[in-house]
Write a structure and sequence with these properties.
This protein has one helix and five strands, in the order βββββα. A five-stranded antiparallel sheet has the order 1-2-3-4-5, with no helix packed on it. Helices cover 12% and strands 44% of the residues. It is flat. Strand 2 and strand 3 form a beta hairpin. It is mainly beta. 1% of the residues are buried. The longest helix is centred in the last third of the chain and has 12 residues.
Length: 104
């Protein structure tokens, strides 16, 4: 369904139990190339299905001009934790003043 101002909502279920829903709204966003704002679509939605082993796979997402596509789901891989020594080194480096590099 398309609403006033360009917003929309849809959902459906397929015969093999894939469920999808999404909604989008128009919002104003800053345009770095111009002093004028521009219209962008902010989207949120989800889909789910059963994997071959019967596990329910569900993905929830948002997408907009600020953060891009942001998926969330228990099935998505996650990075390993950063080792403590490396984390401390990164924090130390981040606190140091930057030094300009000579060009040429």
């Amino acid at each position: 369904m398309i609403g006033m101002g360009g917003s929309y909502v849809y959902s459906y279920q397929t015969g093999n139990e894939i469920n999808v829903s999404e909604e989008g709204t128009i919002k104003q966003a800053a345009n770095p190339a111009s002093p004028e704002e521009q219209n962008v679509i902010a989207v949120s939605g989800k889909y789910s299905y059963k994997a071959d082993d019967g596990t329910l796979i569900e993905l929830v997402y948002t997408a907009d001009d600020e953060k891009g596509f942001v998926p969330v789901g228990a099935h998505l891989p996650t990075p390993p934790p950063i080792p403590e020594a490396i984390q401390k080194a990164l924090e130390y480096i981040a606190k140091q003043p930057s030094t300009p590099q000579p060009s040429g």
